[in-house]
Amino acid sequence: MNLTKEQCQFFQDHGYLVLRNILADTEVADLQRWAQEVYDWPRNDNSPWMPYEEVNAEGKRVLCRTENYANYHRGFNQLLRGPKLLGMLRQLAEEEMLLFKEKINYKLAGSGGFSPYIDSTAYTHIKNIKHLTILLAVDPSNATNGGLNVVDGINLEAGELLVFGLYLAHRSGANKSSSDRKAIYTTYNCAREGDLHDPYYEDRKTLWPPTHLKKEGEEYAEGALRYGFGSPMLSVAMGRHSSALGTMSPDETVSHILTLLTTHGQGDYIGEPISQLAHSLQCAHFASQQSSDPEFIVAALLHDIGQFLPATEARSLSLSVKSMAENVGRVGHETIGAEYLRRLGFSRKVTELVAAHVPAKRFLCAIEPSYYEGLSGASKKSLQFQGGPMSEAEVEDWRNGEWWEDMCRLRKCDDSAKVVGLEVEDVMAYRERIEKCLSGQNLEYLESV
């Protein structure tokens, strides 16, 4: 199919595009039949496809997705690697694309949702690829049945698709309807980067095997960190890891944090030509120029920890945070990251500064017109998702809060930390300052659970 100039420009401006009439009725019927065929495939030690289970709202284990099926299903292989989808992607990417990975999310009635996420760093362990993702609706997809939610909110009918880039914030809720809802997600990388499909699934099968191939007693912590972020798949083993958070020694906690930063910091920072780790280190660098307070500096270093925290905790953290009375509605990476650090034993100031770095943006946009005008296009778009500028009442409440000035200073450090080639201290230089910020709150947390 040929896209219009207006469609291509919309994608460039917004990071996504909805296509309503891409499949004929007969093709939609085939799509629904094929998805059911994959759902019904047997699960045994010899099957190369990869089915994963979750625990639903009734406490039952149910199938939540199947991956790596295109190589073994003629119809899906022809569709997902065929000229219709690849031709559309070529027009948006302005280069040839190859299938990188594919999954069917089943989202059965009563099944859980996925935490807010951005794909920019999802596959850096394979290669730092530039990729596009297609959501192809097998069944109608909306807020009631847990359809994908982006900044503007998207409803799709069967056979319609959404294509989006690596910087689009997205999430989905639980399926609260009485009907199941299937959706296909396919990710494509640039052909010049090579055919990475099979190497990706070889790594995944080793570190995060299908549910029926997981060995009893094996935690698969590295695989959960890479492949399970924010996903209902983690509910099968939920609770297995949460209690361990606050039991590490200070030295172990520091090593854990530093490993997290270095392991998941190599992908590029959202919309900017530097890595996530470089962004975090620059933020801490600018903070240290303003203050010698280790809590302020460490909060700057860890302000985005919720973007790549261990997936073994992501699901339980997001659920527990949502259950708190003060957290009604959106729960973002800043809130989840702050709760994660609190459970690790970080001081209240560190966790509150981390929790506030997104609200501080909303505050500054409300009181400083020049601040809003200075935001990047990506940051202005994410502001919509984050609630927009604060109201007058919210501004007044903010100014009555503790550390509100430090919160604004940290936010401006965050905004400045996008300098290509800036030389700063490496992550190991912060070990001592991180340890100073571990206040023993892990004991308080353990006593509360």
Automatic annotation (TrEMBL):
Domain HD span(s) in chain numbering: 278-358
Question: Which superkingdom is the protein from?
Answer: Eukaryota
What NCBIfam families does its record include? HDIG
Name of the molecule in the record = HD domain-containing protein
